[in-house]
Amino acid sequence: MKFFVDSADLEQISELNDIGLVDGVTTNPSIIAKSGRDFKEVIAEICKLVEGPVSAEVTATEAGKMVDEGRELRKIAGNVCVKLPLTMDGLKACSILSREGTPTNVTLCFSPNQALLAAKCGATFISPFIGRLDDITLDGLQLIEDIRLIYDNYGFETEILAASIRSVNHVKECALVGADVMTAPPGVIKNLANHPLTDKGLAAFLKDWEKTGQTIL
Ligand code: E4P
Known about the structure:
Bound molecules: erythose-4-phosphate
Distance between the termini: 36 Å
CATH architecture: Alpha-Beta Barrel
Shape: globular
Strand order of the largest sheet: 1-2-3-4-5-6-7-8
Helix content: 40-55%
CATH topology: TIM Barrel
Strand content: 15-25%
Number of domains: 1
Order of helices and strands: EHEHHEHEHEHEHHEHEHH
CATH class: Alpha Beta
Largest sheet: 8 strands, parallel, barrel
Oligomer: single chain
Low-confidence stretches: none
């Protein structure tokens, strides 16, 4: 499973990247607004930092303008992935950009049929938002399972990018049902390493090691 960081925070992305946990980055207009940074500038910096795809989202709502914005965003760096909303215009832009060889991430997916459309339009990634479905008491994980089955039924190559991940349990569940990628805020990714028995066990090992009076170096 690939790990993308859902953030525009250079420091946090860099910290996880140094550990070897960053296969790519996702942003959206809300994340960019929260960063307080210039959109193109921050995307350029993230693209330099990480090797994998960095999703940058268009803000136009009409297909032609989305394509123009996508082409503009692609000028920033070779690893920019153009993020498009799951609307008919977004799908049309996805088809055009995909045919040009531009990597695309179709976002705001909330149903299996929407995911089917994105795959048919050649999307590189489909982003089902599981947390936002859970928020309204629907089953986000079921959506990932349904898309997995549909894509496997027909051999679609579009990668399932589980998004709107809010907890470590979401990560485990997405891995169990075969999401290709998950994108999560840095805090959730860091929490994946935490276990009270690991902390307890390590404290006991170190205490016993101290008694030996030995050092490794
Ligand atoms: C993914 O690409 C989105 O940016 C993100 O996962 C949305 O998450 P949220 O529902 O927590 O805002």
